[in-house]
Amino acid sequence: MEFDSDIAIVGGGLNGCALAIALAGGGFSVTLIDSLAVDALTDDRFDGRSYALALASKRLLDAINVWGDIAQNTQPMLEIKVTDGRAGEGPSPFWMHFDHAEIEEGPMGFMVEDRHLRRAFLSAITANDRITHIAPDTVVAQSVDLSGASVTLASGKSVRSRLIIGSDGRRSGVAQRAGISRSFKDYGQTAVVAAIGHELPHNGIAHQFFMPAGPLAILPLTGNRSSIVWAETHARAAELSGMGDAEFIDALRPAFGDFLGNIHLAGARFSYPLNLTLADHLVDQRLALVGDAAHGVHPIAGQGLNLGLRDVGALAQVLVDARRRGEDIGTDAVLARYAEWRRFDTATLAMATNSFNGLFSNDNPVLRAGRDIGMGVVNAFPALRRNFIREAAGLTGDLPRLMQGRAL
Ligand SMILES: Cc1cc2nc3c(=O)[nH]c(=O)nc-3n(C[C@H](O)[C@H](O)[C@H](O)COP(=O)(O)OP(=O)(O)OC[C@H]3O[C@@H](n4cnc5c(N)ncnc54)[C@H](O)[C@@H]3O)c2cc1C
Asked: What pLDDT is recorded for position 299?
């Protein structure tokens, strides 16, 4: 039976794009399908998110030759300060401070805006003749058999491959159609995201303030700008989103503080409802899930995309190794290696961000005292601190070759 491509990737978000480039680099032919037109994806108003890319993710982007295109638009994250606070009261005296100087590998991560990352991915995809990019078009059906898999698109086209990869986000249709159920938890929070301009330099320092309603992250962007991710109750987030610019800055100021001088909005505001969604299985017959389709976590630790890129590195490695051994890449035995590799990491991070958010997003005096003491303890012990730093840099666990700075 003839195949259109070795692999069909459903969903050309950041993880789908990264995976297509990695797999093409490993010698596979790939069809990448996304519902959205490329023009919409590269529009500045498409997505206000900025990502804290861990050092390990940076290495992967370097290894698939995308980093060179975005490097000039990234801001190294040199320090992270975590503080327990209440709006209007300023931070509590207990805080954790992580400095990249305590590890040898370099900055813990790099902040990059969605638009820069997406444009770099899309230009690498266009230039790669092993990748067929179909967008806009939507996958509406899929089927698998012993020798291969097919997806059917809304346009009537169909693509036959050896393997289908679902990178189609938190509501993954690929998973649904395969009968993979998911666990879901609504956090009752919405993240308001915006770029904020400020008078004073941030010096590459990221701040995480824990407020009772939810965390506020202030993450350094290039120039005198920072990205905020402000998690609030749905009602308060709707109020904040409805405010005029000046009113919004007035509401933000008590939580943000004055350590960066005067602040103003440096772009549009975006909001994202926050939930946890975990697929019960990462693989099925001739099918694998990556990124948010496999696990959508709380952005509290800025790890969602980093976790997805670990899937990308792991799956690309498993498939390339399988082909070198002469195996059919769509078989259960091959896909089980990927599922086994990623299962533990996914479950631990999902549980960690879940309990972290529960522990910090409330004003219970007992929990408040406990977490203040906990932060003081972590801060006092260099070995504990270094562990956190290596975790934030994505350097712990069984790293795929692409994240070790090695070839696929
Ligand atoms: C406020 C906020 C801040 C964040 N900050 C960070 C951070 O600092 N660091 C970090 O690592 N992560 C962060 N994340 C997480 C990160 O944004 C996500 O994990 C990541 O963007 C998920 O990418 P994805 O490609 O897996 O899924 P998505 O971005 O959801 O992409 C899915 C794609 O599939 C397409 N699609 C869906 N169905 C179909 C279909 N049937 N046919 C064709 N195409 C289809 C969609 O059009 C879409 O383009 C943050 C998240 C939020 C909400």
From this structure: 77
